[in-house]
Amino acid sequence: MLVGAPGNREKWQDVLRLTTAVLQQQGLSTAQRAQALALRARARNRLGERDGAWQDVRQALRLMPSNYDALLSRGNLQSDPEAIASYSEAIRVRSGDFLAYMNRSMARLALDQAKTALADADWAVSLAPQVADVYVTRAMIRGALGDETGAVADASRALALSPRDHEAYDVRGFARTGLGDFPAALADLDAALRLWPDFTNARNNRCWLNYRWGRYAAALPDCDRALALDPEFRDAYDSRGRVRLALGDVAGGCRDLRRSLQLGNPETRRDFAGPLGRTCAGGH
């Protein structure tokens, strides 16, 4: 479950307080109560209160099975295959809102359905061209499809709309790493981490950047920090494993790479079929 950056966290705390106050009022209609529960569920989820979020979602959908925001909130709580079904149901209820398309695109991306994810992201952009999040989402998907130039363009558009968007800096920095523009990538990732020092994705991506740049000693602390923040972060195990191998720590590197494999990292699995696997053979 994602918890937002500090500023976003304050926003969701405000939403939680306001919706709780509304729900304490007498005389609410069924529709008003269902809507307040749906919005409170979204706030609770973003704040890490998953049990409370599920309770609110279930109550909202009992009151109004076709409540758009409750369907969105249910999708946000579900694993990706089930989430796609919830977002699709939300789209049937309200096809003109960008959020369900944007969320469904991310669920599809997580299931390696990048082409259909891009179609959803394109719809989200067409519906909300002045919302930074839709460009950040499409930038992530374009990067996954190998279109780093398109990813940079979308992330730059997001930053034009929202200059303090830490995710946009992170996505653009990762895309610029793929393009080999290491100084510009470092500037972006530094900016993301100034806005949120505990942003795990940016920590890992700056580690990966320095690895690609050949600055192995500079890479290691960011990978260590990413894993301290999220001990199940499979991409950070992959990054740190490669950094450790480059530094000559074969045992430590192979241990990290095997942990990445255990967590289901497809990139580690792909490369383990070649020289990487041979390096780690023989008890390392």
Report the radius of gyration as a whole number of Å.
Answer: 21 Å
Going by CATH, what is the homologous superfamily of the largest domain? Answer: Tetratricopeptide repeat domain
Straight-line distance between termini:
33 Å
Count of all domains: 3
On the 0 to 100 scale, the average pLDDT is 94
Residue windows where pLDDT falls under 50 for at least 5 positions = none
Largest sheet: none
Q: Can you count the beta strands?
A: 0
CATH structural fold name of the largest domain: Serine Threonine Protein Phosphatase 5, Tetratricopeptide repeat
Percent helix range: over 70%
What share of residues are in beta strands? under 5%
Query: What class would the helix/strand composition place it in?
Result: mainly alpha
**What are the secondary-structure elements, in order, as H or E?**
HHHHHHHHHHHHHHHHH
CATH architecture of the largest domain: Alpha Horseshoe
Summarize the structure in words.
- It is a single chain.
- The chain has 284 residues and is mostly helical.
- The protein folds into 3 domains: 1-77, Serine Threonine Protein Phosphatase 5, Tetratricopeptide repeat (Alpha Horseshoe); 93-197, Alpha Horseshoe (Serine Threonine Protein Phosphatase 5, Tetratricopeptide repeat), CATH 1.25.40.10; 218-284, Serine Threonine Protein Phosphatase 5, Tetratricopeptide repeat (Alpha Horseshoe).
- The protein contains 17 helices and no strands.
- The longest helix has 18 residues, at 6-23.
- The chain is elongated, with a radius of gyration of 21 Å.
- The model has no long low-confidence stretch (mean pLDDT 94).
